[in-house]
Amino acid sequence: MIYVLFLVAVIIAIILFIKSRPKVTTRTKFSYDDLKSIGIEQIDMMEDGSEFEIYLYRLLKELGYTDAYKTIDSGDFGADLVFTDRSGTRTIIQAKRYSSPVGIDAVQQVYTARNYYQAKKAVVITNSFYTDSAETLAGVNAVLLLDRNDLISIINHFKSGIYEKSKSIIEKEPRIIYEFWDNPDMSIKKDAKAEKLL
After folding, report:
1. Could you give the residue ranges of the DSSP H alpha helices within 63-197?
2. What's domain 35-183's architecture?
3. Is 121 helix (H, G, I), strand (E, B) or coil?
């Protein structure tokens, strides 16, 4: 009898637990038929990074990058999109739809993907911002970082029909940090514990 009461109590507890859990709302899939109806707010609400990649792919096509293509979702070697810019430079993009700052992983991924895709230029684009480490690594490796403000400008120019301004942002030159090359005494952070072991 005690086992039956225990079993009933467990079943009631499970039912109460299931009923008390917050309901998961599914986000609606975006229609890419009218890209001009998608703004930064819609990008922030996208279900995952692949929706952002598809949006950027469609945007590149609408801007006139006719050879643009989206890479496969898994095993993309660090590039989500590949296209040739107006000057004939093959460019790769790593897209990051984040709610927090993008770190150095994105820079490392797109930089190493450059040779795989035989690209001359590497870009990371996000709806967020970048950590200081990501900014530094991108600066010494000539990786263009396009942040939330850049993305908003690209979208606004696109919506206004000023495609050339959108392209100019996408194709701008990266910020390059030369001080690492020009200053041989540049301080590199070292592991103090390891140094003490010597």
Report:
1. 104-116, 132-141, 148-159, 163-170, 179-182, 192-196
2. 3-Layer(aba) Sandwich (3.40)
3. strand
